[in-house]
Write a structure and sequence with these properties.
Helix content is 31%, strand content 21%. It has eight helices and eight strands; from the N terminus they run αααβαββββαβααβαβ. The mean pLDDT is 92.
């Protein structure tokens, strides 16, 4: 019936819907469960970091997320070692300088066996980190069993095209029992994704664009996860989820009033922020489901 309306009436109906949407009761983002002092310290450290000009724009755009990742990092345990997957040398120095890890190792997508040594010069000395290249979607991680206290997979899992549980189980293998895993990833169950699906024009993923071919071979967002799926993925790999929550991104604030509509129609409004955060601990006694039903076909 809607398609049979004259064009001017369809336009009026669309305008009325948009007005109702924007003048609905405002929604205030809930407080975030980060330690305020740690978050402030991380933000300042990132702002002061001596990055090259070509990296500055990316750092400024993602500073809020990077600082929150640092604020979520637990203290070192028995080994004092941390592995950062997808290492861009942004939070990397501060895993040592702020978080206290004595050995920081990086990993990046690339040919197996290649190792880069990256350095960053601070006023009080140099930070150095070795970065191993491999495909965490399929390659064994080049580290011994139970080698690390912490593995960080920041904005990684949504890029995996073949076998995300491979990464999860390799992270579990190289972590000591009781060691921690941090995963950050966009939330495809966010209010912004819901708004885009209802609007019917843009892809519901938070980031859905391809990179222009330039020879770097980086993989875009293959599959974004709901917070519910993220929890189940982490649990399927034998981790105990200690914290799982979402946060809102100010850029997408125009979509937040739709939360009132979800609530009015009986839909769950929990974990509707655009960014998902998960902190989990390896538990050797927990079972592992190698191919969870919600991720793999038969």
């Amino acid at each position: 019936m809607a398609a049979q309306l004259p064009a001017h009436l369809r336009l009026v109906r669309w305008l009325l819907r948009r007005l109702n949407y924007h003048f609905s009761k405002a929604y205030a983002a809930p407080p975030e469960p980060f330690d305020a002092a740690r978050l402030k310290q991380a933000e300042q450290a990132l702002r002061d970091m001596p990055v090259p000009p070509e990296a500055k724009a990316y750092l400024e755009k993602h500073l809020s997320r990077l600082a929150r990742t640092l604020a979520l990092v637990p203290p070192p345990q028995a080994t004092g070692r941390v592995l950062e997957l997808g290492c861009y040398m942004q939070i990397t120095p501060f895993l040592n300088r702020l978080c206290g890890y004595k050995e920081v190792r990086g990993a990046y997508y690339g040919p197996v066996g290649r190792i880069d040594r990256k350095t960053m010069q601070f006023p009080d000395g140099e930070f150095a980190c070795e970065i191993d290249h491999f495909d965490c979607d399929r390659d064994p991680f080049p580290y011994p069993d139970e080698h690390f206290d912490l593995v960080i997979a920041g904005e990684i899992i949504e890029h995996l095209a073949l076998d995300p549980m491979h990464m999860m189980l390799e992270a579990r293998r190289v972590l000591r029992d009781g060691g921690h895993l941090i995963i950050t990833t966009p939330n495809v169950g966010s209010i912004t994704s819901a708004a885009k699906a209802l609007d019917g024009r843009d892809n519901p993923q938070i980031f859905y664009l391809y990179k222009r071919p330039d020879g770097q071979g980086e993989i875009g967002h293959v599959r974004e996860y709901t917070a519910y799926e993220l929890r189940n993925t982490v649990a399927s790999a034998g981790f105990e989820v200690q914290q799982l929550f979402t946060t809102f991104i100010e850029e997408f604030a125009p979509h937040w009033p739709l939360l009132n509509m979800l609530a009015a129609h009986g839909y769950d409004t929990e974990n509707r922020g655009e960014q998902s955060w998960c902190l989990a601990a390896k538990r050797a006694y927990l079972p592992v489901d190698r191919f969870p039903y919600f991720l793999y076909t038969l």
